[in-house]
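Collaborator request, handled under Task 6.
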Amino acid sequence: MGAGMHRIAVGLAAPAERPMVSAQIADRLAVIRHGRGHFYAPPQSSSEIARLVKDFVACAGLELEDFGPSGTRPDGLQRPVHEDVLRTLEAERIRAQIRRDLGAELQDAGRISLDAAAPRGGALLGYGWSTVEDWGVWTDGGEARVHVPAPPGSSWTMTLEGRAFSDSELARVRYCAGTGPVLETTLPTGVPGTVVVASDGRATTIRLLLPDAVAPETIGISADPRVLGFGLQHIDIELVDTPS
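Structure tokens returned to the collaborator:
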């Protein structure tokens, strides 16, 4: 819903108004206020507000211009935007800036290698990822997305290194570049493996689809309720070709 609202509203706004549009929609989705109707009642802890705002940013595909320059604190149309929303949007602005910097680095060097647990690697994580840990980060749910900081129209290969999780010895990992065809690989559970995704010259994101994802709580391994499918540790991106 938020992604659709943003797609319409940002098309009607002047460039300087884009940060206000993003902040207003994020506040509208995440913050319960008197007289404001919701299709659901989002949890109101700081961490849950931040999570919903991050998911909105990922689903809507917000770019650096949607956040404004550093220090931008957009006001709402009727009331100030909630502080938790503003803090999360500033963190997402920093991540968007890192992605843009990585794009310039990739274009210059032709290849970059990133740890998923480091801020530069974490900046590529889109929708569907859990909290980053010391070793890397788990997907949380049946789908996750990764940003690809490659120049528009370029061809690239991204290698995702990590380990799969399921309730059997093997786990299926389906993947695609943008809206391209969905391919599938099978990885042994709990041991290092790789997923290699090649672009079609148009994609700027990768989708991982994890039909065997399961919560450790469900299969009696631990009390962890997250639905885990793939634990990402390392990202390699190689630029194959750029538009002339």
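The cover message to the collaborator said: "Strands lie at 111-115, 137-138, 143-147, 155-164, 170-177, 183-188, 192-198, 205-209, 230-241. The chain has five helices and nine strands. Please let us know whether this matches your experimental observations."
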